[in-house]
Amino acid sequence: MMAGWDELLAAAREMTTRSYAPYSKYPVGAAGTADDGRLVTGCNVENASYGLTLCAECGLISQLIATGGGRLAALCCVDASGTVIMPCGRCRQLLWEHGGPDLQVLTPNGPQAICDLLPQAFGPADLMR
Length: 129
Prior knowledge:
Elements: H1 5-16, E1 28-34, E2 39-43, H2 56-66, E3 72-79, E4 84-85, H3 89-99, E5 104-107, E6 110-113, H4 114-117, H5 124-127
Domain CMP/dCMP-type deaminase: 3-125
Active site: 57
Keywords: Hydrolase, Metal-binding, Zinc
């Protein structure tokens, strides 16, 4: 059974409390549903060397792979106040790879397909050319 947006928002908000954000003070939580109905979550993990910081979406994708793989079907990200936020460009690329063009992302303007958030994305098929 696929999680609804309310369940994903609650899980993402919970994940902000597990975030490690001592430098930016900007906790982020992410929650998604795999194509088999599994709930997967992640939180941001900062590093003193900012370039090594892991976004919440990275942790979520790691959990997706570690718990059996599959495709991501839906995702939301929130800040510490619980407000829906957009995945950064790097994470949009990661989400495309593991969700494909139809992955639904909850945005501040409602659900949108990742293909609308990352038009003309580079993906695995491009490596086959």
